[in-house]
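User: Sequence for SSD domain-containing protein below. Tokens please.
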Amino acid sequence: MCVSILLNYFYIFSFFGSCLVFAGQLEQNRYHSIFCCKIPSAEYLDRKPVWFQTVMSDGHQQTSHHETNPYQHHFIQHFLREHYNEWITNIYVKPFVVILYLIYASFSFMGCLQISDGANIINLLASDSPSVSYTMVQQKYFSNYSPVIGFYIYEPLEYWNSSVQEDLQRLCSGFTAVSWVEQYYHFLKVSNISANNKSDFISVLQSSFLKKPEFQHFRNDIIFSKAGDENNIIASRLYLVARTSRDKQKEVIEVLEKLRPLSLSKSIRFIVFNPSFVFMDHYSLSVTVPVLIAGFGVLLVLILTFFLVIHPLGNFWLILSVTSIELGVLGLMTLWNVDMDCISILCLIYTLNFAIDHCAPLLYTFVLATEHTRTQCIKSSLQEHGTAILQNITSFLIGLVPLLFVPSNLTFTLFKCLLLTGGCTLLHCFVILPVFLTFFPPSKKHHKKKKRAKRKEREEIECIEIQENPDHVTTV
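Assistant: Structure tokens for SSD domain-containing protein:
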């Protein structure tokens, strides 16, 4: 991500900036932006077919005087100036905007209280994968049981020793075990066979226990080695299933955290594994730590902005706006069944940058405006930056449409988070901020006082009137 940001800035300041300068020169000299040829006069275009007029016209009528700001005639600019600014600052619209924000804040707060701190393995699979159907059925009907945990003993062990048998039973306590060890001990007890030494234990195991049809499936769970005439068990495996509650993933992670240290401290050397553990290890490393890093990053950005601001009050409003957008995206994506996985964490970090880029110009223009009232200041801010903000967010949202056609739940999660990011930012820039900035500081009264003082100074200037008598000067 850092490399992409650096390349993006280098691209903007080099090639893209040069293209903008070249396009501006073409537009100023009335050259075609694609064919780079001189745009014909209006009289010449009138004599040509419609398709030629459409291709070669620049969309502006050629006039004798130079138009200082043709951007004012853009249809979005015209709509904001003539219609939207008056409507959003209307006194009858403001109460509904306040109610809308209270609803927004309520749902965001409700979603923040329901954040799921576990990622769903379904998000890593293709939406049309059979594994998704299996996982959904397993979570729906068998969610009270953990995955089948492989318990692998990878060193020779004295299974016939009573102390070793007690250690194995202690390790397997609390689990439903599918174990050749338990079955073999039960077989010896029922058959009244004594196997208290190595040779008897292995002999009965190979010649009697594993020969029976109901126990033949345990052959793949025991690895024998032969040294001369003596057989040894060098490795074996058991299967464990834990009974869990609804929060299965969290409990399985706790089981892993308890069993893995035991594999190093106990006399029995073993490994516990299930294919889903790879995902759980990835979750524990890639979500918990980035949450802390994201929080630290947000705090660091907000602190640094105090030293890189145009106006302290504008920075205060920017912090409130970014916090509102960030919490809104977090709460609403939780209500939209989005878990706190790696993708959502990265999107939350991106939301911070996206909100600052779009809210900062609007807020600082408002704070530094010199109009008489707050309403006039917010109208001026929307008129100056509203079109650019609307075009940018619209292009951003349109760019998300291809993500809907990717058959991946992970990509759909990305679509949800980025859609909420663009939607919440658009809501704040065009609805919430234009209304709330008319209620709260900064006040524009000091601008009135300055203008009144200047007016008084002009009125108090001495005007000298020269009468018919040039020697007589009257002061008015």
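The CA atoms of residues 123 and 422 lie 22 Å apart.
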